[in-house]
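Why does residue order matter? Because the sequence determines the fold. Keep that principle in mind as you read this record.
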Amino acid sequence: MGRTRLILTFVFSVLLLLLLAATNADADSGGVHVVRSGETLASIARNYGVSASAIARANGISNPDLIRVGQRLVIPGGGSSSGGTVAKPAARTYVVKAGDTLNAIARRFGVSAASLAAANGLSNPNNIRIGMTLRIPSGGGAVAGPAAPSGAGTRFVADLSAQHCWLYKNGKLIGDWVCSSGRKGARTMPGTFKVQSKLQRAWGSAWNFWMPYWLGIYWAGKTENGIHGLPYNPSNGRKTWAGMVGTPITFGCIMLDDVNAKKLWEVAYIGMPVIIQP
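Structure:
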């Protein structure tokens, strides 16, 4: 009897160890990320194509700023880990607009002002002028797109702090674009949404303009906020915010230039996930 009990105890211990090993392997390969130095909740969310608020909820984090190096975070939705790295950003330029400063532009693209100045041969960072084209150096996490889980369907991700958007289809990045969000007093709402309306163009009665390639995503009071191309005046066709993509300028929507808005519209469908990150 004693020998039988000893054998059963041994078998149970082995099975328990195997189960724990399998569980840890599944977590490491699928939905767990180990925080590395310099990472933030927002940058980790971009890396997995999910919202920062979703990661915070999944891990019981009340203050997103209080994550620590070595902390293991559960990634909701089965995000596939990319080892804490982001894709290499494509070469990018930015045209200086009224009110821009080098620091503000650097923050928008997730690079340092010093590297931005060096990349453009600026001896005096204060001497930037409207219309100047600046080359954005590589290394900015805001420019590099988040990694989409392998096998995921079509999804659209927008980052409000970076004024940048990405489109994924079947786990592959197929769109990497500058975009605009809501201006001060008309903030775009962060969160996870789904496309709920799709029109070739939508009428903005409050502002007297057409919004081409319309994708509605959520209701803000009596009006619907969504994603669209450059609005234009119905009488003369003049584009309301021409040359301003990349600046928070809309009344709460996400705005792309017409070429990219059309590309998105053509692959979008009712129910398509839309993730807007703070």
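The longest strand covers residues 209-220.
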